[in-house]
Amino acid sequence: MAGTISFGGIGSGLDTEGIVQGLVSASSTGLSSLKSRAAATRAAVSDLSEVGSLLGKLKSALGALSDDSGVRSYKASSSSSALVASASSAAQTGAWSVQVQQLAKEQRSYSSAFSSSSAALGQSGTLSLQVGSGDVKNIDITADDTLDSLVTKIGASGARVSAAVLFDGTEYRLQVRGLDTGADNALTFSETGTSFGLTLPGSVVQAAQNSQVLIDGFTISRPSNQVAGALPGVTLNLTQTTTEPVTVNVDADSAALKTKLGSFVSADNAVVNKVHQSAGFGTIKAQNPVLAGDSLLRNITGRLGNAVADSGTHGTLSALGVSVTKEGSLTLDSTKLDKALASDAASVVKVLAGVSGDDGAMDVLSGVVDSFNQTGSGLLATKKETLEQRAKTIDSRVDREQQHLDWYAEMLRRQFSVMDGSVAGSNAQTDYLSAIMKLK
């Protein structure tokens, strides 16, 4: 019993506490077995949680291929650095001849020259500016304003412009620059009571203009140097004008699709490997006896393998190079995938993502994953709940068995204590009789 100090064997000379511990130990085989079962059951719950986590990763990998935008991968190339092309999933394969005739620019206007940027200009009135067809911004000018203070006032006006002072080595000029390119963002100035020179024709050193390109002879204009919408899913980033046409190519990007399919294969194999480790498979011994040969775990790998083999409505994954081995793991044949993409890229999309109203292979597999891994209602969650309850039940049996052993040990101590007292009394009586006999 906890807290009890026993000095058994004083009368008999026997190690009674050692005998008690030995008898209790011999009777505790059932307790050790129960504790092992409880630990194994909790380890099984942990294993199922890991399987669930791996299924979650598989679900994410499937999601990356479950619709057109995920499956359709394209790459755009340009024959000149003057034009950088990029493609989205909405692109279409093809080739175009593009000539950059002009770049989009923002307006830059300069004031007349002044001898100082910090000296008062001695002008009073209003400087008004307008960007395109936007609101007119009126800036009040006082006699003590300088070029430097004009920079601050223009910046605080709220107009989409910036201001700065330019020093050419002799004189100072105020620069007002539009923040947005395109002809529709031209700047308009008016002065009342001031004469900064911003309304003079020569004040505009760079006019606001659109970019302009010829695509296969057709003129395309945009307010910025990003030309989007002219080619489906393709953006042309213009960096400089060209004197010769630039060739833009858009091709299916098999490398991107391979990466996504590779992630799916790896995620599926991680689930299969974990199930084989936990439940056993072939020559692989189950790491946890509670899950040895578990039907639920084997059902996971079985249904995943069947779903890969059967695939969706529009074809099988094996046609894309994804195959199931006899152990249930997946392999990806890149050469086969390349051939499928080269021959009919649209069919590859249908196999993986399906079409409106029809499931693709990724949808079918996602449904399998959900049936097992749905939070709260999936088969794994139900199995984990059952095992957790079983562990609690075993814990209760462990507590009862421990109480029984504690009672048994205490009973033995009391019995040995009684025996020890009897032996001590007998010894004392023997000693007494021996002493009397000696006196005779």
Structure, described:
- The structure is a single chain.
- By secondary structure, the protein is α+β, with helices and mostly antiparallel strands.
- Helix content is 45%, strand content 21%.
- The chain is built from 9 helices and 17 strands.
- Strands 1-15-3-11-12 form a 5-stranded antiparallel beta sheet. It has a 4-stranded antiparallel beta sheet with strand order 7-8-4-10, with helices on one face.
- The chain is elongated.
- The two termini are 49 Å apart.
- The model is unreliable at 1-11 (pLDDT under 50).
Summarize the structure.
By secondary structure, this protein is an alpha+beta fold. The chain has helices at residues 16-27, 29-63, 68-71, 147-155, 254-279, 295-310, 334-353, 361-373, 379-439; strands at residues 74-78, 83-87, 94-102, 108-110, 125-131, 137-141, 161-167, 172-178, 187-192, 204-206, 211-215, 218-222, 226-231, 234-238, 246-252, 322-324, 330-332. The chain has a 5-stranded antiparallel β-sheet with strand order 1-15-3-11-12. Strands 7-8-4-10 form a 4-stranded antiparallel β-sheet, covered by helices on one side.
Widest sheet: strand order? 1-15-3-11-12
Strand content: 15-25%
Which structural class do you get from the secondary structure elements?
Answer: alpha+beta
Helical stretch tally = 9
The chain-level mean pLDDT equals: 86
Q: Could you list the spans in which at least 5 consecutive residues all have pLDDT below 50?
A: 1-11
Distance between the termini: 49 Å
Q: What is the helix fraction of residues, given as a range?
A: 40-55%
Task: Please state the overall shape, judged from the principal axes of the Cα atoms.
Answer: elongated
Assembly context of the chains:
single chain
The biggest sheet, with number of strands, parallel, antiparallel or mixed sense and barrel status, is: 5 strands, antiparallel
